[in-house]
Amino acid sequence: MAGLRFATLGSGSRGNATVVRCGRTTVLMDCGFAVNETLRRLAVLGLTGEDLCAIVVTHEHGDHMGGVARLARRFKLPVWLTAGTYRGAGTPKLPEVRLFNPHEAFVIGDLAIQPYPVPHDAREPCQFVFSDGDQRLGVLSDAGHVTPHMRRCLDGLDALILEFNHDPGLLAAGPYPPELQARVGGQLGHLNNHQAVELLAGVDRQALQHLIAGHISEKNNSPHHVRQALADRLPAEAAELTLAPQDQGLDWHEMVRHR
Ligand SMILES: [Zn+2]
Ligand SMILES: [Zn+2]
User: Fold this and answer.
1) How far apart are CA 108 and CA 104, in angstroms?
2) What is the C-alpha radius of gyration for the chain, rounded to an integer number of angstroms?
3) Which candidate in 53, 94, 98, 123 could, as Cys together with 84 as Cys, close a disulfide (CB 3.0–4.6 Å)?
């Protein structure tokens, strides 16, 4: 078995993309960056577009899907997405559309991928747990609240990229108009720092080797607020926390194997 590794190309409302690799299988999850910017960020990780096997998409919002169609066409990549996401994006021209049911696992090369639905204001949004058959990386980037099903899917992970979108106080005092504040803070918006911490507190974290805070709002949050929220409740995890930046990627994270 080859082992699971991952890296982010960037995370936040101006663009998201994550690379997950196992053996010769390299999958890009979401692409909210223009093609040239994506290729520039891939190159930092030692990758080119030719190295990618597929793109999997969480939902149709521009910060996740804005760059998907062009990248897919340029490198003839299959795009895996829910029927709702495909329709929500306006059924873009793609070289190969692979529709999946957000309750059913699928396989791309050496990677098993378990999607799970999340409450977010898109047509049929989901998030993913990636596995090499031994270890599991969970991703949760856009959700307005945490459902019991999400908690079950993210239990006992080896690595987790988790949304810490906003601090409720900073959101309320921040520059967003009231409608946008209500959307971001609402049941179909984004997880605030405390929701993220409560999710973590409610799952088995014994195997967790990597904890990455992602989709951090530049206007309604700060690294200090993220770290403080976690430190107040889960100090051991706070000491290990990595924050995913927007303007650059995070280098490869590898897993130490169980067996
Ligand atoms: Zn987003
Ligand atoms: Zn979104």
Assistant:
1) 13
2) 17
3) 123
Q: What's the gap in Å between 155 CA and the centre of ligand 2? A: 23
Going from the Cα of 144 to the center of ligand 1, the distance in angstroms, rounded, reads: 11
Q: Are 242 and 211 in contact (CB under 8 A)?
A: yes
**Domain total of the chain:** 1
Residue 48 lies in a domain: yes
Question: Residue 203 CA to chain centroid, in angstroms?
Answer: 18
Q: Is residue 110 assigned to a domain? A: yes
Region 64-83 average pLDDT:
98
Q: Could you give the CA distance from residue 104 to residue 133 in angstroms, rounded to a whole number?
A: 16
Angle between helix 35-44 and helix 68-75 axes, rounded to 10 deg = 70
Distance 60 CA to ligand 1 centre (A): 9
Residue at 43 is within a domain:
yes
Give the residue numbers spanning the domain of 129: 4-247
| Tokens coding 178 | 């009231």
Q: Where residue 237 sits, what CATH number does that domain have?
A: 3.60.15.10
Give 61 Cα–ligand 1 centroid separation in angstroms. Answer: 7
CA of 258 to the centre of ligand 1 (A): 32
CA 24 to chain centre: 21
Whether residue 255 is contained in a domain is answered as: no
- Could you tell me if 154 and 139 are in contact, meaning their C-beta atoms sit under 8 angstroms apart? no
Residues with CB under 5 A from ligand 2 (ion): 61, 142
**How would you classify residue 216: left for phi > 0, otherwise alpha for psi between -120 and 50, otherwise beta?**
beta
